[in-house]
Amino acid sequence: MDERAGVWRSTVSFYRSIVGGAVFALAAVLFGRPELLVIAVPFLVFALAAALNRPTAAPTTTVTVPTAQVTEGESFVLPITVRSVAGMEHVSIGVRRDFWFRCDPTPGIMQGGCASIGEVALPMTMTPTRWGIREISAAYVMASDAWGASVLQQHHQLGARVLAVPRTDVALSSVPALAASGLIGANRAVKPGQGSEFAGIRAFRPGDRMKDIHWPASLRSRDLQVISHWSEQDGQVILVLDAAADLGISGGIDGAPSSLDTTVRAASAIAEFYLRRGDRVGVRIVGQGPFNNTVRIGTGKAHYRRIAERLAQVETTLNRRGRTDDRAQGVPPGTLLLMLSPMAGAGALTQAATYQRRGAHVVVIDTLPSVGLGAGVDPTQSLHWRVRALERAREISQIEHEGLPILPWEGPGTLGTLERVIGHLQSAARVMRR
């Protein structure tokens, strides 16, 4: 913590008492008015007592950020400790923080008295109201003596950053789950392999194992037939986030969400849901530039923390310069791919159709806010948005007609509908495959 120690400075009241006492005393002598001397004495006594009891040392302030990561809406206590000095009676502390921090007390200022020399604890409760990297930049300390004649100001440079991960609000016990068709998670890989699950019977090829020969089928066809198996590896769940535009004005956890708020929170909820079921989940973020926008396939609680941390670092300031095109590479056929997008442009739907043509099970989740868009003061802007909304509805209708399901995100309850849609896609794919 960078601390700039202040010095004790005299207040206006101290100078006023000196000037006032001197003026009344001088007037009493010049004009022979002893009653004016009675008025001057309290001012001079106050000034003398304040000067004799003026603090000489500066207090020591300690501010420690207890955590580096919290969930948005989760409160933590910022411990602030001030070690008072002789003559010091009152201290006030203010914290300069990110806009998306809510403090208790609300102004972000703590006050306390110093009855004796020792440490004064002034804990402040802070709550991040939106996901992202939130900064607590500085703390300001103002102390005063018992006479109110001296004040001291200190500036402490903190530069602390707190990573607020998105809140999911997922009640996993209330979401209906389909029967798992794989060995670990619910989404089985669709590629053949050396597993134990029966896939079909095919003609013998060099390299097949003798124990896989199916003798009844071989006798009927008079050619060697072997049993094929599906891979023991479960399928992948890939979340593709369209972060190229942030539509709407975010109100934090207590207000209306923007499109990027809905996208990030929905991705966090879906990732947690599938990871808890044992599936392997990966994340791709498009529209944010070419660097560090992929979380590799993984599973487990530690992997969810990696996903949540990456989602919390999505930059909203670069959205309008980002790209929405993402080459559909590294997505094997049969992968469950969930695209979360406000579909502000046709590029997201075109990209989803590309993934589907490559054999992935694609579901588009609409993250556009249902209210608060196009309600600007500018009539031209409102008219432009209404026209774009009509074009968007036509594009969605066309892509749905081609067989690409689109679901609006309406909170964690959407997971139940999503599971039914995915179950239908995978059952249809299994019928075609076998």
From TrEMBL:
InterPro entries: DUF58. Pfam families: DUF58 (PF01882). The lineage of its organism: Bacteria, Bacillati, Actinomycetota, Actinomycetes, Geodermatophilales. Residues 201-329 form the DUF58 domain. It comes from Antricoccus suffuscus. This is Uncharacterized protein (DUF58 family). Keywords: Membrane, Transmembrane, Transmembrane helix. It comes from the Bacteria. The chain crosses the membrane at residues 12-31, 36-52.
